[in-house]
Amino acid sequence: MSHHKPLIKLEGVCRSYESAGGTVHALVNVNLSIQAGEMVAIMGPSGSGKSTLMNLLGCLDVPSSGVLSVAGEPVAGLNPDALAALRRERFGFIFQRYHLLGSQNALKNVEMPAIYAGLDRVARLARASKLLKRLGLGDRHSHHPSALSGGQQQRVSIARALMNGGEIILADEPTGALDSQSGRSMMALLKKLHEQGHTVILITHDAAVAAQAPRLIELHDGHVVRDSGWPSHMSRHAFVPPPQPRSGWWANWRRRVEQSREAVLMALGSLKAHRLRTALSMLGISIGIAAVVSIVATGDAMRASLDNTLRGLLSKRMTLNVGSPNLKPGIAAKMFQDADVVALQKLEGVKGIRPKLETMQTVRHNNKNQQVSVVGLSADDLEREGLRVQLGRGFSSLDEDLRSQVLVLTPIAANYLFEPGAEVLGQTVLVAGLPFVVVGVTGEATGGNAGNDWQTRVFVPSSTFRTKVSAGTGINQLQVDMTETAEPEYLMADITRVLTLQHGLEDFTVFNMDRSYQEVNTTQKLVQLVLVAIASISLLVGGVGVMNIMLVSVSERMPEIGIRMAVGARQSDVQTQFLIESIVLCCAGGLLGLALSYLAASGINFLKPDLVISISWSAMSLAFMVSSAIGLVFGLWPARQASRLSPVVALARE
Fold it and tell me: Between these two residues, 5 and 7, which has the higher pLDDT value?
């Protein structure tokens, strides 16, 4: 090994901290060099600066002043990600408290550094398994740290230190938490690693441990007070690095995919380890998603139902009424005549014109009398009223031509005039003193006319109505059906112009029912939007809850963050993991919210079959995207906080 280029070199290195009592000088003007292949013990009492020096040597921290170089490269100018890469490629840490992740088994703990190095899954699992077997833990792959003894946990941490090669092994009080037998085994392992070419640096206060290293460095109050140097008669073994990850765009792409996959798995493992907290956080998001989706679905169903009702009554229709508030006193409005109907029928945009023939009359059958609304209809108008004949027949063109005295009853009129179960068809009913034969009974009204079911109505041919039931000089109301392409405002102007020419003055009123239909639709959408906005507040509350939970998680998991950074995780790796946890948490809450919405919709559909509520795929997709966005937005701040932690501060947190 070259003696001209030390593996680690410190020149005038100082490290100080600010505290409540003032500035603390942990290291003062430290100068030392460590060559590749050495085994060095750094010894000193508590407070001498051992831990601070170890953090600097392992690039977990940087000097306040002076120059620290690793393999000839000063570390002062390196950013956090470059320092992480340096730790990942050259260092392996063996901590006094082991610092294993309790949620991961031995194999997962060992393979962690290789995940951040980009080694493919098959290769790293094989290497991790081989290292555990080499250290006598071949049958402990699936054991979690809680199921391992102290010595076994320390061996797992050694295997983790060697995972990426571990050219430099930093062991902090490696025997401090072990019994004497395990301590001797640990020192034997470290000596063997040194013989295999690893540079081993021991941090200890135990003189017996320090005496086993060929070189001893003593610290006192931040100063190097003794450096025995490397014995001249001892050789240094060359370090053989393990196989490195492949390079190239394809390998890099696979590495990113693999790292993303592992980040998701680690996020799921972390959420699983805190089931109650995860469930409560999911509940907040799920309630918000369920509220928004349910309101949207219910609003759509109600709008569809109301639209179905109003479309038949209002959409693409106008109503013309005799009379106008603008008529001068003493001038009587003219009734609409057949000539008016013919003239209006010729206008572009007019689909059809139906005179409204309706009057209140007393009808009689045997000894039963009932005040009903008698409506005159043509042969085709019955279906326009939303009615279908369920018993008997409707009107024919022959009935219209012959002015037949035939009658179609609604169910409610039939119930008033006839006993339950009685024969209705062919019976004679007196209308305005004239006999009419019942030829049909309708079912319940549907569509836009369902609201008329409360009325007691009977129907007669329109020609019969105008000549026999209510013989008069004209019609007091016309209903204009527009074509789909008609422009209501222009058609209204044309109708006004034509009727004014017909009557000599504007003695009528045109009511644009389509405009009312559009206004109702707009109002419905506005109300639904307001309800969705109110429900969205619960989503924001859930998002704030997720942020709070993630901040608590960052605080609780600082040792884990420190471990990941020590083994080579970049800031972006840590940030990505916490972001994924937040997104997975919110997406799971979103899926639960969708399930709750589906159950609520099914319940409402069961209780009220006429109101069909369905959760569309678009609504589900949108809810999933919204929950993901909430996880991203509200998880970003905690993730950034986690990624910006100092490895030293994070590892010191218990």
Answer: 7
Coil, helix or strand at residue 248: coil
User: From CA 322, how far away is CA 476, in angstroms rounded?
Assistant: 5
> Lowest mean pLDDT: which of 203-207, 304-308, 353-357?
304-308
> Cα 529 from chain centroid?
20
Per-residue exposure over 459-475, b if at least 16 CB sit within 10 Å of its own CB, e if not? bbbbbbbbebbbeeeeb
pLDDT at 21 over 90: no
DSSP 8-state code for residue 386:
T
Helices marked H in 196-337:
207-210, 249-273, 275-313
Residue from 283, 289, 284, 288 nearest 615 by CA: 289
Cα–Cα distances (Å) from 17 to 10, 431, 438, in that order, read 19, 106, 104
Distance CA 288, CA 227 (A): 65
**For 604, phi and psi rounded to 5 degrees?**
-65, -40
> Could you give the domains of the chain?
8-245 (3.40.50.300), 253-305+519-652 (no CATH), 317-516 (no CATH)
Residue pointed to by tokens 């005295």: 405
Q: Which of 3, 195, 2, 178 is nearest to 95 (CA)?
A: 178
Picking from 521, 523, 524, the residue whose alpha carbon sits closest to that of residue 311 is 521
Distance between CA atoms of residues 312 and 361, nearest Å: 26
> Average pLDDT of the chain?
85
Residue type for position 360? M
Q: Which two tokens stand for residue 471?
A: 């013989």
Q: Print burial letters for 585-602: b (CB count within 10 Å at least 16), e (below 16).
A: bbbbbbbbbbebbbebbe
How confident is the model over 491-518, as pLDDT tens digits? 889 999 999 999 889 888 888 876 776 7
- What is the chain's Cα-based Rg? 44
Percent of the chain that is helix, strand, coil (3-state, to 5): 50, 20, 30
> Is 585 in contact with 275 (CB distance < 8 Å)?
no
CA 440, distance to chain mean position in Å, is 57
pLDDT class of 314 with cuts at 50, 70, 90: low
Exposed (0-12), middle (13-18) or buried (19+): which is 629, by Cβ within 10 Å? middle
**Using an 8 Å Cβ cutoff, are 428 and 369 in contact?**
no
Separation between Cα atoms, residue 95 and residue 172, nearest integer Å: 5
Band of pLDDT at residue 654, cut at 50, 70 and 90? low
Structure tokens at 278: 């995860």
Contacts of 522 (CB under 8 A, 6+ apart): none
pTM over 0.90? The answer is no
For residues 643 and 573, give the distance between their C-alpha atoms in angstroms, rounded to a whole number. 8
Under 8 Å CB-to-CB from 377, ≥6 apart: which residues? 357, 385, 395, 459, 460, 461, 462
The H-or-E segment that residue 32 falls in is: strand 22-34
Integer Cα distance of 651 and 99 in angstroms? 8
The answer to whether the beta carbons of residues 592 and 280 sit under 8 Å apart is no
- Work out the angle between the directed axes of helices 106-117 and 249-273 (0-180°, nearest 10): 140
